[in-house]
Amino acid sequence: DMGVGKSCLLHQFTEKKFMADCPHTIGVEFGTRIIEVSGQKIKLQIWDTAGQERFRAVTRSYYRGAAGALMVYDITRRSTYNHLSSWLTDARNLTNPNTVKFSINKYTITGEQYRVMKEIPAVIWSHMVPVQVVAELTVSTVGNTGTSPVPLESSTRTAGVLSLEDILSLGKTDNSSDSGEEDVIFLIGNKGDLDAQRDVTYEEAKQFADENG
Amino acid sequence: DSEPASTTALILEHRPSNLPKKSAEESEKHRLEYEKMIQRARRNEIKDAQKRNRTAKELRKHEETVASASTKWTRDILPNWETMRNTANTRTMWWDGLPPSVRGKVWQLSIGNDLNITEELYGILVARSHEKLRSMHETQSSCSEDTVSLSADRENSVDLIRLDISRTFHNLCIFQEGGPYHEVLHDILGAYVCYRPDVGYVQGMSFVAAMLLLNMEPAKAFISFANLLNQPCQLAFFRLNEEMMKIYFAAFEVFFEENLPQLFARFKQHNLTPDMYLIDWVFTMFSKALSLDVASRVWDMYCRDGEEFLFKTAIGILRLHEPLLLTMEFIHAAQLLTRLPTFTHHKLFVHINNVTMVSHGNRRWKDVLALLSRD
Q: Is the residue at B75 inside a domain?
């Protein structure tokens, strides 16, 4: 949905800094970053789409050929969480239906466990739940095991703290034994710094993730 | 020339007494070298001074041109709008860019008010949007946000406006919460949602309204805003009318290919489709993609030439960046187009001027559009 912080996340990922009052995206914008996975340089192409429901007809055409997706909601606005299932439906319907299959409970490491493991402040990870969709596409182009997450910078707003690199490597952590031929969808509850205004609990999001694969 | 002549004020020290004396020949050589140095420095200083004078003169001249243009606009053209708007002289002055002092007025006159909206109606609509917001918040705002997507009546989208206002021209620092234009921009957009609940609030509108608000009074800005959005091109885009948008994209491609065949072929090959960059450009009429002064001039010309100029500008931008775009792979070209580097007026407008909006020998924008609509 609009205003959940998608562009801000992208900016953080590509520029490594937080951007206040990030202008809203109209249509689509693009980001790239080269990450190194197991000694191999991989270029990520990220498509950052408009959030308003009205633009959905337009942004739908941008799902094709995607190797993975990040679904973002705002923990302080329940409506953005409620809309997740319809975004998920789009994501599933618009990737190749023959190759998309769902697998359950593949990721044993949740955001919560990861937090304990890495001693990262709870507020950052409490809403990060991997949801996954398995397809015949390229996890290997997204990331793989072995990348140790960069230390998180402290910032006043969460969108600035959340590192997509960490999310991506987290997703892969449990996936090492796989052939790596999957589409992955991650669920991100953004704005964890506004915990006091929280409208969606971690457990709910976790449940949503579990129910959807 | 008020600059201190520091380089020519070097003091030539005598040789310290504890060192052996220079030969006459050597002293003479050093003296000559010193004089040469001083002369060179003087020449440079004179050149710098001339350059400063030139820029000052140019600036003065520019200011004078703007001042005289603005007199011409206010004294000759504006009072006789209907007869003067299309004269060759007016059109040339228009192309040079409208003086900021008359910009708002010319935009208003060009956009017109076919909808016959009065300032009173604006007041009523603002009051209505306030009421709507109040009642929505009383009945749990989160529910209403949910219904936005479901209901055909988009009056509820009034609640979404606040999410975008602070993110509109945030570098100007006037639309943010607490800023002087924050409430006014909200009012205009809220009033529009109440005026056209079938369209509602659509992202991109905040930039259009803000551009108008920067050049005219709130009620006038609303009237222009509603009339502007009632134009065929804006209606097609803001209603997200896919069929019509596709026709506009196709028409754009006809002229894109005509003007830049090589780049067109490359984009086709890389699957870089016009929607990826045109949506942002058309929705905001370049006010997000270009710097404020460049965008204002594009708006000036939009007011003179209509929707065609938006697409001409788009081709002008592609033309400006063509050499670079031809070397880029998909993702970098797409990135460049969705986040344009800043450039000057002059550079872009030279390229726009070189775009021909005639295809197949004699088809103009309107003809191509009509032809595509028929198919």
A: no
